[in-house]
UniProtKB/TrEMBL annotation:
Name this polypeptide is given: Beta-xylosidase C-terminal Concanavalin A-like domain-containing protein
InterPro entries for the chain: ConA-like_dom_sf, GH43_C2, Glycosyl_Hydrlase_43
Beta-xylosidase C-terminal Concanavalin A-like domain mapped to chain residues: 27-258
Region listing for Disordered, in residue ranges: 1-21
UniProt source species: Diatrype stigma
Pfam families: GH43_C2
Amino acid sequence: MSGWEFPLENKDIQGSGPFISEGDDVDFAPGTTLPAHFTHWRFPVPESYTVSPPEHSNTLRLSPSKLNLTGLDGNYAGPEGQTFVGRRQQDTLFTFSVDLDFRPTSLEEEAGVSVFLTQNHHLDLGVVMLPVPDDSNGNNSIVVPPRSVGTNGGAGEELAPHLRFRGESYVPVPDDIVVPLPEAWRDRALRLEIRASNMTHYSFSAGPADAMSEMQTVLDVSNEAVSWGFTGVILGVYCTTNGQGGEGTPAYISKWSYIPQGQFMD
């Protein structure tokens, strides 16, 4: 078979943003803006996203929305917005991670990472403030049986930060996983990671940002829950009060990384 030769590669062209085959290494430096390829699901509230705020430089400050990623009913969100920003999953295999500095003080305040398709199809791992379960032992491991934790937050009930995984989809998803954050991890920035190591599953992990050897896998979950529709998956970060009143506690995101690791093609 014969034909014209491909022209020589030339990436010296005008325009903003990375080439599609590149990954992310974003430090949110002072004076910068969100990268051009970052995207939102709903029209963003500009005040909810502050790059390198004075009190915490080289981070992205997320001011929480009242609505979480599911919104009002999995379809609608109203005019108040959802605090969520991400980038497209452009590779079959990848590792996406961020450092999260989040010190919640009130019931159901939450911030974390998400594999997001639509409001009724997403998989989330976050830090959330919840009542302390009676059997909490404060150990340094998150690999413990899932606990069913109430969220009524009665007066005087002790609250503590927890790691929580939960999913939303039209197909079955794993039960919620809720575990108290190990005491040694509290008041420290955490690394949250989503990795696709094969064609069918995501792996969610967490650990102290300054001690990568302590990273622990929370679960591996099938990507079937986010494998249809017309939007394509967005990998991103969110911050919400989960319907609670008040301004809520902001979250600070840093060391945003997306590493392409391979593409499967039919």
